[in-house]
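[User] At your convenience, examine this fold.
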Amino acid sequence: MSRIQTTFNQLQAQGRKALIPYVTAGFPFADITPSLMHGMVEAGADVIELGVPFSDPMADGPVIQKAGEKALSMGIGMVQVLDHVREFRKRNTTTPVVLMGYANPVERYDQKHGKAGTGSATGSAFVRDAAEAGVDGVLIVDYPPEECEAFAADLRAHGMDLIFLLAPTSTDERMAQVARVASGYVYYVSLKGVTGSGALDTAAVEQMLPRIRQHVQIPVGVGFGIRDAATAQAIGKVADAVVIGSRIIQLIEDQEHAKVVPITVDFLRGVRKALDA
């Protein structure tokens, strides 16, 4: 059983919902990420999503795009992201870590460090090294489920889950395709648009989740548009997990080094309290 599945099982037994914060690795300072991850756990995070910086993040809005550009300018790539996870694992061996990103950095890593992959290739250096670093799940935005069965099997063989996005536009056929290969949880994008955009329609989310659950047996997390404790609480009533990313990036983007972790901890504690209320 993966760390992600174990975590969700424990939360379900407690009648609680998962809090999944997202931060871009290496942002806003190249060395801050492991400390920030520990702070998020201290504040009540159940799973951490770590964004892998990429120059063309098509699903991300301007806030996360800018964070990725800054991280890239400081030399943060997949090697450094895996180093952040290794550093985090020295003190934390239980909190699941999910890498969220795009195909290009994964396939580039394979070209440089081992077998060249096409997304569906097995025996990838990325999978081997991510598992060794302590990664628990991978969400590759631009990997379609119908081309991922071998990649998913490779991840599972290394104790990791392959997580997929579903959207308001997802058809029943697409949900069934995702259900065949996804593990850990699925991430429902609550808005038609990019990260951090628009106002969250909790009623629409509430209507969509039963449709998703007709096909998907694993937990469903909801993100894109959750900005505060109130929206997190509303979504937590219907979803298994709440994902918050852009708001955290906004809170820390202009802060001095010493304030980044305390500000994040303070914000997430408020969200955790609302989710548990």
